[in-house]
Amino acid sequence: MTTKNPTNGAIGVFPLDKLILAMIGLAGGVAVGSGFVAFLTVLDIVPRLTVLTRTRRFVRWYEMAFVAGALLFTWMDFRGWAVTLPPVSTVWVGLLSGVFVGLLAAALTEVINVLPILAKRIRMESRVFWLLMAMMLGKVVGSLFQWLVFING
């Protein structure tokens, strides 16, 4: 690509600093994307979804949906596009986002065995259910506080 050189008005090549920035941005995107895919792979999110929904034959569709969603929303972010939906649809978007985050949290907890270790450390082995309920309630109250006080307040 050519640009006008501000010093002498001649047409020159694309500045090296912009090329370096583009390469750094691309490398960062590849690193983050690879990390996300590795995270989903280690946690077995796609197989877990297919087992829970009894749709093992659609495993490729799940994988393509993850990739297509990541590509689409990255492209939309670069283009500055926004999706305007009716207010009622935010319930569904929030529900689906919550399911996805819940799956990630449950899978991560299962992989690293957080709850049994935490229960043993604080001597609450017989109360793991209540520990889980307290964590869930804390997450819900914290999210509501964030939305109702910090964002809308």
TrEMBL record:
The keyword Transmembrane applies. This is Stage V sporulation protein AB. The keyword Coiled coil does not apply. The lineage of its organism: Bacteria, Bacillati, Bacillota, Bacilli, Bacillales. The chain crosses the membrane at residues 20-46, 58-76, 91-116, 128-150. Keywords: Membrane, Transmembrane, Transmembrane helix. InterPro entries: SpoVAB.
